What we know:
8-stranded mixed sheet; Butyryl-CoA Dehydrogenase, subunit A, domain 3
Amino acid sequence: xxxxxxxxxxxxxxxxxxxxxxxxxxxxxxxxxxxxxxxxxxxxxxxxxxxxxxxxxxxxxxxxxxxxxxxxxxxxxxxxxxxxxxxxxxxxxxxxxxxxxxxxxxxxxxxxxxxxxxxxxxxxxxxxxxxxxxxxxxxxxxxxxxxxxxxxxxxxxxxxxxxxxxxxxxxxxxxxxxxxxxxxxxxxxxxxxxxxxxxxxxxxxxxxxxxxxxxxxxxxxxxxxxxxxxxxxxxxxxxxxxxxxxxxxxxxxxxxxxxxxxxxxxxxxxxxxxxxxxxxxxxxxxxxxxxxxxxxxxxxxxxxxxxxxxxxxxxxxxxxxxxxxxxxxxxxxxxxxxxxxxxxxxxxxxxxxxxxxxxxxxxxxxxxxxxxxxxxxxxxxxxxxxxxxxxxxxxxxxxxxxxxxxxxxxxxxxxxxxxxxxxxxxxxxxxxxxxxxxxxxxxxxxxxxxxxxxxxxxxxxxxxxxxxxxxxxxxxxxxxxxxxxxxxxxxxxxxxxxxxxxxxxxxxxxxxxxxxxxxxxxxxxxxxxxxxxxxxxxxxxxxxxxxxxxxxxxxxxxxxxxxxxxxxxxxxxxxxxxxxxxxxxxxxxxxxxxxx
Length: 596
């Protein structure tokens, strides 16, 4: 089959536009395009994790945080605390792709990755993006070297997902020089050794605001270490604020605008967490695949059994698709950031916020991919997977927090659908015209597109039809519930699942088409297999989600008509996934690891 060569493009896509626009394969970034610098950073981290961090896992797991602090400062000598900080403040000022490479590779040891992320991400970004010049000059150089370590304090005992329901207060002193902070923050990562805390409190009990609090300020203390299911090597404590005097110059951003700091930082955190989960999936398969090769039952390696091959294949498929989504998204953000001055925080945040939908998708799908991979890895290990003598037991426990971190997956599902609909109502995402065009197609009996004879034409048509299925389901739901959609959480969750699957399907397809154009079909047969299986299975999920939505909003003949229309868009002839998955598994087994 003739596969056309790709031409370069620099067009910048709007966030969420994948739902209503076609994207060319050459428009996305893929891991195959890492520069020499990216590969060098990746190798540096791999060596650091292998030689410095991995040998000290047990010490960290037993709460020896001197080890954690020492390793963070060793990481600083390699520049691993300074990736996002501009050079003028003592950082490296590297691109967002470099930042994601770091996030992915550090997850070999979950606890250390959490400690690192708590410092370099949510602990540093508020100062980097919202701080004054004085705050940046004072704190960022020391954060880059690890002289100061940071923590982010948003959650409270009674306000988790409802961050704006915080009870912590701040009161301006009569002389106007300090804010007096009172309150308790819960589940604060790095609290046991942090030097500074990014704290959110309400001025006069009303104006949600952000403050930079040093640990040595009077009235600052922490509780005992929380006993946790996983990430035991990370410090997690309550932060207690009792009449803490915070200089007025330590306000981050504007009084009453703390939500801008909190939500933008969480959005960035979702970005990194999703990539990190993909790295964790690769690490887990690096344990489970070799074990499946070595472990013998009934006189054979268990890797030769079909049930085990199915697990290895499915883990590999989800991980490769997750990776495709992650680096597509970071490529979008990286392109949008080009030409923006390092001090232009407003435009930097605006460029990244454009992809808030994609960031939430990465967070949800990445964490659920990792949960699946570690669970199946434990199953491959059997009884030994349940033993603390094997690393997969720790990986299983460590992975669970990711579905809670940075906003629960339930909250993020509602955010995904909510952001899509909000942008549609503002007409920044042309969803309404797309729904209107779809209704006209249905009325006229036109059901497009049909598969053509282009390469992976069946899969291309499936992705396009899946988008129409979403438009039909979402349009029907909005028509029924209008402004009360936010109260229909089950429906918004089903719609979010459809949106996520569409982004995943298209990301995998575009990456594969780009690979085939650049390397040829013979060298990319496994990636082709992965893409075909994922799209096959996703179409079944999309059909189910769409039916659930339609059945919830209508009934009788009207429902029958809606389902009939939907079937036109979700029809897909199943492929022999059993045979294809065996090929995928054999490829990974031959490599002895995940090999995308």
